[in-house]
Amino acid sequence: MNKTLTKTKDFFKREKEAFKKDNKKAYLFTLPYVLCFLTFIIVPIILAFMLSFTSYDMVNFPKFNALNNYLYLLTSDEEFMRYILPNTVMFALIIGPGGYILSFFMAWCLAQFPHRLRTVLAVILYTPSLTAGITMSVVWKIFFAGDANGYLNYILLDLGLIVEPIVFLQDPNYLFPIMIIVALWGSMGVGFLAMLAGILNVPKELYEAAYIDGMKSRFQEIIHITIPSIKPQMLFGAVMAIVGAFSTGAIGVELSGSNPTPNYAGSLIVNHIDDFGFIRYDMGYAAALSVVLLIIIYLFSKLAYKLFGEKE
Q: Quick one: average pLDDT of 262-272?
């Protein structure tokens, strides 16, 4: 404990001395970012934390209720413990690592193609992450439509695999797997682009030297050279995958057309926050849920830093 305090004091002392030597005018260039960061990140987090200890219906002034929101969350919110939290954890454990591994695999594959073809394929893979919301409400809802005109129902009926259309998006047994498919389809976001850029910037001399030293396969190349060389990009991709997996909420609601989803089958923490905050107008409890979500994302991000962060 004493060593940690000593290191912390030494760190702040060095930073203070470095700040004195810096040209203060240069800090003006960071002012727009600092203002945006404070306005849209820090201030909302502080307000959410404060509101989480209140009872607030968006009409009357917030009333302090101590830890009642958190006690209700842990002891009385049956939907949260029975459906919301398990759905969110399962969704994040599938989409987070699944989308992350898929992003790395596709980035590595694209790095093997010539420049022009690689650019075209990268745009094709990245586009769904930008248009996922629009496409989800058009293409996917038509594909999984619950009548005979739905693409999937039409195919299954034509093959004789079913005798009547299945209402996929309203059936709790099918909604969650469909959410997984749609989320993986749109998972090639900025993390994918960061890993692609990192792989392309690994010096070719490293691979040549490794093959001279006895490296025999592409798998060894990935494990011993590619991944260690792009750890910053891997860390960025991991954090983005974690944040995206836990903060996703629109998929189940858009597909099913309701919040909460049928039998809470596709409801995640973000949907629960929207339900209490903007449907039931219980902003205090919604703020408590958002604080819990923030803590979960922070813990998983720390785990990602342990795996891919640089020790120095």
A: 89
- pTM of full prediction above 0.85: no
Cis peptide before 165 (omega within 30 of 0): no
pLDDT > 90? residue 16: no
Torsion of CA 90, 93, 96, 100, to 10 degrees: -140
Domain that holds residue 161: 78-308
∠ Cα 129 132 135 (to 5°): 140
Question: What's 153's domain CATH number?
Answer: 1.10.3720.10
Q: Show Cβ contacts of residue 170 under 8 Å, excluding neighbours closer than 6 positions.
A: 146, 256, 262
What is the predicted pLDDT for the residue at 291? 93
For the chain, what is the domain count?
1
